[in-house]
Amino acid sequence: MRTTENRHTPLDENDGSDSKSKVAIPRHLGLFDCIWHLIGSIIGTGIFISPTGVLRGAGGSVGVSFILWIVCAMINACGALTLAELSVIMKKSGGDFTFILQAWGPLMAFIRLWVIQFIIAPSGGAIGVMTISRYLLTPFFQCAEAPVASLRLVSVICLLFVQAVNCFSVRLASKLAGVLSITKVAGLVIIVITGLHNLTLGHTEHFQHAFNTGSYDVTLLPTGLLSGIWAYSGWSVITSITEEVKNPQRNIPLSIVISMSLITVVYLMTNVAYLTLLSPNRIIASEAVAADYSVLALGIKWSWIIWLFVALSALGSQNSGLFKSARISFAAAREGHFPEIFSMVSITRRTPLPAILFSVISLIYLIENDIIALVEYLGFADVVFETITVAIVPYYRWKYPNLPRPYKVPLVLAFLYLATLIFIASMSLYADPIKKGAGLFIGLIGIPIYYALVHPKYRIKCLRPVSAKITRLLQKVFYCVRQEKKTF
To answer: Is 189 exposed, middle or buried (0-12, 13-18, 19+ CB in 10 A)?
Structure first.
């Protein structure tokens, strides 16, 4: 197995000194904490928007749309359980970056890091906080568009709030994830209850002839799959924070099964509720299904309740996304792929404070009005690298058959998810080869950056003393040091 040497080897927990006084991120996440992070990351804005794409992909057939929701849940569960095996084998945080680094080497890992940390994560963070601000302000500007300046101001406040919580305490960030997860589920329960009430009133006309697929166009299927898979995405948060999970070989896969099962049931019931008042054609034409439904179900006077829950849902997703992103930066810096300062932990707070503050680059993306276009360009590269990551599981089974595996995923699940990723990548490339090729090219820009800044032989040597001085200065500013005990 390929391994990478940590330039600053942490002290062992059992070296005879007082391990409790050593600076390190604590292993603080139990089963329910893992579940809260998964629910917080997965249930963002997808269920409030994706029904449009899923129903469109089902050709307007209600029955087929429910099948697609179940299939997409199974596909994402397969992916999550597959990468859970890698997380408990390698025992390190960092997710895809760590897995690729161990299996395919530093160059491939840096390209993946470049795509995630400089494009996907910050642009996704910007979209998330803009969504929060839009849903919070819309009730106050129902007769006009909310001012762009107001949207950006609220977005900045939301981003800084989540950063402050994560910087202050890892346990507080997990508690926030729990509170917001309960809140967002409560919001969906309100939708479900109103939907059940509508059913008792006889609003069942949209469920009649549910499997009317006489004129179904199979070319619409990728649209439905992509929308459904996106609604269930976000589970990678749990495979990126392995070092902070208690008993990871049990809690990581178990939390995935429990969370995905709960979310699938809630998603299906939410779609039933939507269809009690909204016709399939109206859902397909809608830009915000939950907003349209809330006006009909609760009236204009009370529809703001659902809008508030959508905003809180997006805030929870933002919190868990930042939690994950910071651990990737932390793991990358520990392996020498990021500036050293990002591998350090606050002495007083025991949080990866510098790595958390790195997410402030999301503010740069708030300047751009069409961030989603950039994400669409890079989405193909993201799928390609996820395919490369999943391929590690069968590769390791072949090359390292005797490697200890505390948790072992059935290979059929890994191959099912791998086949799905290949299908999505192929269809995306076929549908728009220019944009997808451009996105892949942006990802490959990471190659010269790797050789200039990271490669031990070719990196620019004159930057070393400058980097060291900046690191020491920032250490004093943030009052942080490298981890003093081994956490993997």
So the answer is: middle
Kindly report the pTM of this predicted structure. Answer: 0.89
Looking at the DSSP assignment, which residues form a beta bridge with residue 245? 29
Neighbouring-strand partners of residue 480: 346
Q: 232: which 2 tokens?
A: 């269930």
Give me the number of domains the chain comprises.
1
Distance CA 65, CA 55 (A): 5
Q: Of the candidates 400, 485, 409, 483, which has an alpha carbon nearest to the alpha carbon of residue 2?
A: 400
CA 362 to chain centre: 15
Domain extent, residue 121, equals 33-207+223-482
Burial class from Cβ neighbours inside 10 Å (0-12, 13-18, 19+) for residue 32 reads: middle
Please give the pLDDT value at position 14: 38
Cβ pair 241, 93 in contact under 8 A: yes
Average pLDDT over residues 232-257: 94
- Beta-carbon contacts of 365 under 8 Å, excluding residues fewer than 6 positions away, are 122, 123, 125, 126, 371, 374
- The two three-digit tokens of residue 356, written as one number: 């958390």
d(CA 374, CA 396): 34
Angle (CA) 39-42-46 rounded to 5° is 130
Strand stretches in 99-191, DSSP E: none
Two tokens, residue 139? 């009730």
Burial degree of 124 (CB within 10 A; 0-12, 13-18, 19+) = buried
Using only C-alpha atoms, what is the Rg of the chain? Answer: 23
pLDDT band for position 486 (50/70/90)? confident
Strand, coil or helix: 16: coil
CATH value at residue 375: 1.20.1740.10
Are 148 and 391 in contact by the 8 Å Cβ rule? The answer is: no
In a domain, 432, yes or no: yes
Whole-angstrom distance, CA of residue 255 vs CA of residue 250: 8
CA distance 238 to 256: 8
| Beta carbons within 8 Å of 466's beta carbon, 6+ residues apart | none
